[in-house]
């Protein structure tokens, strides 16, 4: 398990810093700092750095295998985030769905897409033992 003195770090490409900052702030992520070539956010307690690199944008993104996101341990948090995304008119790549129905690893999921076509998955497992 991760100790509270550790923060996961993820770096992703972005095509426009203004669009990127607007999207992640609308999602509720706090902008930690911004430079001419990157923006760093508090992404649900972890560090997300969006590097300006328009040449690296995936023009035809697919959910699998490349995406990142949050697995909620409590259903209320998942539902709150889903409702928040709807209220803020955030762009969905894939509407809410159930994956692996009837199996131990059954979970709810939805995907958002940021301005640089990075895919963000938010999910909640009914069986908490299936998170890992």
TrEMBL record:
Residues 6-125 form the VOC domain. InterPro entries: Glyas_Bleomycin-R_OHBP_Dase, Glyas_Fos-R_dOase_dom, VOC_core. It holds the Pfam family Glyoxalase. PANTHER family: PTHR39434, VOC DOMAIN-CONTAINING PROTEIN (PTHR39434:SF1). This is Glyoxalase. It comes from Bacillus canaveralius.
């Amino acid at each position: 398990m991760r100790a509270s003195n550790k923060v996961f770090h993820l770096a992703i490409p972005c095509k426009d810093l203004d669009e990127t900052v607007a999207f992640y702030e609308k999602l509720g992520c706090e902008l930690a700092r911004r430079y001419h070539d990157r923006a760093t956010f508090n992404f649900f307690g972890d560090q997300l750095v969006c590097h300006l690199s328009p040449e690296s944008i995936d023009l035809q993104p697919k959910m699998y295998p490349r995406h990142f996101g949050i697995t909620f341990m409590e259903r209320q948090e998942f539902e709150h985030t889903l409702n928040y995304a709807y209220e803020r008119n955030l762009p969905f790549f894939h509407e809410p769905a159930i994956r692996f129905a009837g199996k131990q690893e059954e979970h709810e999921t939805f995907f958002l897409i940021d301005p640089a076509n990075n895919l963000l998955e938010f999910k909640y497992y009914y069986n908490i033992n299936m998170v890992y």
